[in-house]
Amino acid sequence: MHSGKSGSFSSLRGTDRKDQSVDKFVRKNHNVLLFTLIVITLILKIKLYQLVKYLL
Predict the structure, then answer these.
(1) Average pLDDT value for residue range 12-19
(2) d(CA 43, CA 37)
(3) DSSP conformational letter for 47
(4) Mind giving me the DSSP string for 1-32?
(5) CA distance 11 to 18
(6) Which domain holds residue 25?
(7) Of 4, 12, 29, 54, which alpha carbon lies 20 to 30 A from 19's?
């Protein structure tokens, strides 16, 4: 039982390390991700607007 706990604990620490690297990556590229999201929504809005205008 104790060995199982220690094993799960070590694996938990491993995932923590992975999460930290992911957090670092997200923090570094946060502005880029946000910018792409805004651009995509803008393009979709423009396409939708053109479609509505065309239908009307």
Answers:
(1) 67
(2) 10
(3) H
(4) -HHHHHHHHHHHHHHHHHHHHHHHHHHHTHHH
(5) 11
(6) 2-55
(7) 4
CA distance readout (Å), 13 to 1, 8, 23, 43, 55 = 19, 9, 15, 42, 57
Task: Please name the residue that has the structure tokens 């491993």.
Answer: 14
Number of domains the chain is built from:
1
Residue recorded with tokens 């570094």: 28
- Identify the residue with better confidence: 3 or 31: 31
Enter the tokens of residue 56: 């009307």
Q: What is the pLDDT of residue 52?
A: 92
Distance CA 23, CA 35 (A): 18
